[in-house]
Amino acid sequence: MEGNVLLTGFEPFGGNDINPSGVVAESLDGKQVSGFRICGVVLPVEWGATKEVMESTICRIDPVMILSLGLSSGSPDMNVEKVAVNYMSQAKDNKGNLPDGSKICGQGPDAYFATIPVEDVVDGLRGKGIPARLSLSAGGYLCNYTFYVASKYVAEKGRREQVPVGFIHVPATPEMVAESGRSIASMDLGMIEEGVLTAIGVSIKILARRG
What we know:
Elements: E1 4-10, H1 20-27, E2 32-33, E3 36-43, H2 49-61, E4 65-71, E5 78-81, E6 83-85, E7 111-113, H3 118-127, E8 132-135, H4 142-156, E9 165-170, H5 174-180, H6 189-210
Parallel strand pairs: 1-3, 1-4, 4-9, 5-8
Antiparallel strand pairs: 2-3, 5-9, 6-7
């Protein structure tokens, strides 16, 4: 087996010096999982620009699977997202820009479901002792936006059945929590990396079995 798995994360935002989603995407870049090569990419936290980078990267590396990561500060679990909705919250990005309207795509579907095996991924993570849960809301910020535009791009290319797409929200790291001074949940960066590798491995195995 061969091919590329596109793994994306985000640059820091919201006053944080780091974003574990981007750190993990960078650290796992070039790693092999079941014969497939991970291509890690850090996306900008910018309306519009994120879509351009995502679509151009998909076109360039022709992935067999797309898994995006984002930060969910305060969450104790890796949240495996089930649904991307056609909605943008009126929240500023890293450039201080607001989205133009509330819909990601005026003529697009109201939602896309993840095409990675989300329930199996959650089970696989828990089986490794990694806190995880199935989530039915990726929010309305750049995480949901990225999940939706990746799903839509693959669908428009007629490859929705061939290129599974998924999204996982990861917790803040202990260092981020310590720096913030807040009493919130965290997860070690090493465990997040193990969780992402597990999610990719489970997805490849289950999808190959389904044929």
